[in-house]
Amino acid sequence: MVKVTGLEGIVAGETEIGLVDGEKGYLVYRGYWAKELAVSRSYEEAAYLLWNGRLPGTEELRQLKAQMAEERVLPDYLCRLLDLLPASVPLMLVLQSAVAALGTEGNATWPPTLEQAVRLTAILPSIIAYRTRRLQGLEPLQPLPELGHAANYLYLLTGKLPEEAHVRALSAYQILCMEHGMNASTFAGRVVLSTESDICSAVGGAIGAMKGPLHGGAPYEVISMLEEIGTRERAEPWLRSRLESGEKLMGFGHRIYKTKDPRAEALQMATREMTGKDAAYDLALHVEATAIKLLEEYKPGRRLFTNVEFYAAAILKALELEPELFTPTFTAGRIVGWTAHILEQAVNNRIFRPQSVYTGPMPESGTVS
C-alpha cells in the first residue's frame, strides 16, 4: 500500500465552485478567471458569482449590497460578548466565539441557507473592526451604508474614508482570497457541515483551521523580510546573503503553482495606482524584481515566482494594517468560498468518513471477539 500523508493527491469530492491548476497557473471561479474578476469586479459581484453560479444583474447586485449593508450592523448581545472577552484572547479565537454566538439567531439550522451565508460574510469585518478598536481604546464605529464591503472595512478600522486606490487593492486581495480549492480550512468546513451541523459551526471549524500558521500566516514573514531589508540599496546584498546561506526567500515559490501565482499577477495589476505613491510598496516592487533575478542566478530552472503572500504583505503594509489583522483580513475574504462550499456540500451531502491504517501493536494472545 502506498503511504499517503495529509491526503495529498486524494480526491475528496467534486465541486463547481473553483479550479486550481498549479502546473498551468489556473485559478478559476465558476468559469471565470479569478485574476480578471479581481481587477474588473467588486467584492459583492464576485461573492454573488460564487454563491449563485453566475454574475449578478444590476438589480440583483443592488439587492445584495443593500442586504449586506443591513447585516453589517452588530447586534447588542454580540457587542457585549466582544467586550467581555479578555484582551489576551487572539483575534481568530474571538471570531470563532462571535460566529458561534451568531448561531443563536436562527442560523443553527439544517440545511444552510444563502441568507445565512450573506449574513456571516457581511458581519465578519464589523466584528474584526469592533474588537480591534476596543483593544486600541477607541470607540467602535457604525458601518456606512453608502460604502461597499472593502471600503467599509477600512473605514471601520481607521475612522477615515479610505483612498480609492486602497479600496481597489483591498477588494482585489479579498476577491483572490475567496476560493482556492479543497484547502485545509475549506475542507474543515465541509467536514463539519457533512455531519448535518449548522453553518456557524462549519465556519467556526474553518476559522480554526485558518488560524494555524501553516495556512493563514504567511504574510508575516514577508513583512519581516521587507522590514529587515529597509532600503533599495540593501536589497541585493541582503537577498544574496540569504541565498548563499541556503535560506528561503519568503514570498517566492508555491507548493501548488509551478508558474507565477495568478493571484500575484492580479494584485500587481490592481495596485498599479499605488506605484510611486507609497514608499513601502515601491520597496516591495524593487525587492521582487531583484529577488526574481537572483533566484534565476542561484536556482536556475526552479521556476520560483512571486506568490500571493508577497503581494498580500505589500498591500497590507501599505494599508498600515497591524500584523495581527493579516489572518483575520484573509479570513474576511475566504468566508465567501467557505460558505459557497458549505451550501454546495448540503445539496448532495454525505458525511466524510475516511479510513486510517492502524500502525500500533496487536494483542499478544487471546481470542478474536
3D architecture notes:
There is one protein chain. The protein has a 3-stranded antiparallel sheet. It is mainly α and 369 residues long. The relative contact order is 0.15. The mean pLDDT is 91. Strand 2 and strand 3 form a beta hairpin. The longest helix has 22 residues. Helices cover 57% and strands 3% of the residues.
Summarize the structure.
The chain has 369 residues and is an all-alpha fold. The chain has helices at 34-40, 43-52, 58-71, 76-84, 91-102, 114-135, 149-158, 164-177, 184-194, 199-211, 213-216, 219-229, 232-244, 262-270, 279-298, 308-318, 326-347; strands at 18-21, 26-29, 32-33.
Write a concise keyword list for the protein shown above:
369 residues; Citrate Synthase, domain 1; Cytochrome p450-Terp, domain 2; three-stranded antiparallel sheet; 3 strands; 57% helix; 3% strand
Itemize the secondary structure elements and their pairings.
Elements: E1 18-21, E2 26-29, E3 32-33, H1 34-40, H2 43-52, H3 58-71, H4 76-84, H5 91-102, H6 114-135, H7 149-158, H8 164-177, H9 184-194, H10 199-211, H11 213-216, H12 219-229, H13 232-244, H14 262-270, H15 279-298, H16 308-318, H17 326-347
Antiparallel strand pairs: 1-2, 2-3
Whole-number count of domains: 2
- Average pLDDT confidence is 91
Spans of at least 5 consecutive residues with low confidence? none
Write down the secondary-structure element order.
EEEHHHHHHHHHHHHHHHHH
What is the CATH class name of the largest domain? Mainly Alpha
Query: Helical segment tally?
Result: 17
Let me know the number of strands: 3
Shape: globular
The strand line-up of the biggest sheet is: 1-2-3
Structural class category: mainly alpha
What is the CA-atom radius of gyration, in angstroms?
22 Å
CATH topology of the largest domain: Citrate Synthase, domain 1
What's the N-to-C terminus distance? 27 Å
Fraction of residues in helix: 55-70%
CATH architecture of the largest domain: Orthogonal Bundle
CATH superfamily of the largest domain: Citrate Synthase, domain 1
Strand content: under 5%
Main beta-sheet annotation: 3 strands, antiparallel
